[in-house]
Amino acid sequence: MGSLRVASRAPSPVLDRRRAGILLHPTSLPGRLDNGDLGPSAYRFVDFLAASGCSVWQMLPVNPTHGNLSPYACQSIHAGNDRLISLELLESEGWLDKDDESEARMAAAGACAYRCSRLVQGCLGFLARASATDRSAYEEFKAEGAYWLENYALFQALQEEYGSAPWWEWAPSLRDREPRALEDARARLAEAMEQQRFEQFVFFRQWRALKRYANDHGILLFGDMPIFVAENSTAVWARRHYFRLNDVGRPLVVAGVPPDYFSATGQRWGNPLYDWNRMQQDDFWWWRERVKNHLMLFDLVRIDHFRGFEAHWEICGTQETALKGQWVKAPGRDLFSTLQQAFDPLRLVAEDLGTITPEVTALRDQFKFPGMKVLQFAFDGNHDNPYLPHNHIPNSVVYTGTHDNNTTLGWYQELSAEERRYVLDYLGDAAADMPWSMVRAALMSVAKLAIVPMQDVLGLDASGRMNTPGVDEGNWRWRFRWQEIPEELASRMRRLVQIYGREVS
User: Fold this and answer.
1) What mean pLDDT do residues 442-466 have?
2) Tens of pLDDT, residues 14-33
3) Which of 351, 352, 456, 503 is catalytic?
């Protein structure tokens, strides 16, 4: 892997003071279409956070998803999810005419098709009547993002041309990115590519406006960056040399985790694994560009499956489960030293869940990355359990649960009577107050940052679960409605935030 780097300076602290926040993916916001977006409800949620005394909005990855909607297997590591583009804000720009028959059109075509048609109309409107200032901003955006935007626009246009077939099933000349084939495709698909460029321009324009509003109201945006990327993605198609693939682009080995809390057979994620030697030869350029983009989008970034940077679970590409695999070392120390030199402060939080070894802990601590404490993992009867509040450390983020857990009320309802008794004895609270007894435990913790999923703030049972790991269908679709929020909810949350010293004035 080459010689080891040593960080040239002491890492800056990521968590500077006690804060509280709420975990809610933008797709879970209320709205007229089939998922929430960056429009009026996002601004209203910022107002709710501020009223609640919370100063952090955590969300899942915001890159474009595939049909199963998983934000952890996206089509690009740089592009924004077009499903998050607000048509209402697009109308307010003057590029898209209002549609008085929107409900009927959505009912006839479906929300997804309706959104796509409206985005096409928005692009035509922009090209026809955008101001000189906006046209200049568009040209600047395309020039600055060309290194990723051109590959993404072509990838999406080809996906459409091939009926959503994965890139390794395209014509070999396109699969293998032969220059003449790419040139012909760019000419043939020029209009479709321009549509993709426009949508990315709009996404980032709307995102910057929302982030500015959030920051002006004292709210930090806390994002998420998966360690691995989807096989059917621009990242793999355009940079095959950074991945361990065979001659036709299929992975020789894939990522996953061995049997754990979530699955008796482990989890075979299927992501192609990196050729770390090649990445290191390029001084981790690919990672530097990826992290730069995330630090532009967010004030804090959770790096998913942190333990994979010390060693990852490698599964042969032909294996159907994750049972047969092996731990393979990764150059995490070299990578984070390079990133820390490029970005100071390196505002990363380590998702250090799962099989954690002393080597993983040492890597996390060397760079002073905050780790995670999940309260739902705490109550196994062992007083040394690191997730129990009395074992927490300040440089960490405490959660009642995450997007991969059941809601806290759903979790509690599924416990045995004996397990419930232990939870209540520890928390010293009545069962009727669940999940608020767990919310209080999180806010009380010495961990600098406490995050509560919106489902727990609303007191929802298992019907509000966002994701069940290992289950392919039915995930990532949960949404709330504004009428579900009682008038006193913000003040109740704010009072607890104040009591436990997490309000930021």
Assistant:
1) 98
2) 899 999 999 999 999 999 99
3) 351
Query: Rounded to 5 degrees, what are φ and ψ at 40?
Result: -55, -35
Residue 12 lies in a domain: no
26 vs 69: CA distance, rounded Å: 13
Q: Report the candidate in 78, 90, 105, 82 with the shortest Cα–Cα distance to residue 39.
A: 90
**Residue of 4, 51, 23, 376 whose CA lies nearest to 221:** 23
Within a domain: 504:
no
* Cα–Cα distance measured from residue 214 to residue 221, given in angstroms and rounded to the nearest whole number: 8
98-152 pLDDT, tens digit per residue, is 988 888 888 888 999 999 999 999 999 999 999 999 999 999 999 999 999 999 9
pLDDT given for residue 415 in this prediction: 96
Give, for 196, the enclosing helix (H) or strand (E): helix 190-216
Q: 359, 404, 429, 461: which is the annotated catalytic residue?
A: 404
Give the residue numbers spanning the domain of 219.
19-499
Residue 5 counted as domain residue? no
Is residue 431 within 8 Å of 423, Cβ to Cβ? no
pTM of the model: 0.95
37 labelled catalytic: no
User: Do the beta carbons of residue 371 and residue 350 sit within 8 Å?
Assistant: yes
Query: Does the structure show a pLDDT above 50 at 330?
Result: yes
402: which residues sit within 8 A by CB, 6+ positions away?
A: 23, 372, 374, 453
d(CA 170, CA 184): 14
User: Confidence band (pLDDT; 50, 70, 90) for 5?
Assistant: very low
Sheet holding 326-329, edge to edge: 267-272, 253-257, 311-316, 326-329
Strands 253-257 and 311-316: antiparallel
At 215 the three-state DSSP class reads helix
pLDDT band at 264 (very low <50, low <70, confident <90, very high): confident
Based on its alpha-carbon atoms, the radius of gyration of the chain, rounded to whole angstroms, reads 23
Residue 236 lies in a domain: yes
Give the span between the Cα atoms of 451 and 398, in whole angstroms: 6
**Rounded average pLDDT over 403-407:** 97
Of 122-136, 397-411, 422-436, which gets the smallest average pLDDT?
422-436
Confirm whether 404 is a catalytic residue: yes
Instruction: Kindly report the CATH number assigned to the domain that includes residue 483.
Output: 3.20.20.80
Catalytic residue among 93, 194, 304, 359: 304
Total domains, the chain: 1
Mean pLDDT score, 156-170: 97
* Residue 365, token pair as written in the block: 């601590």
Task: Write the burial class of residue 11 (CB in 10 Å: 0-12 exposed, 13-18 middle, 19+ buried).
Answer: middle
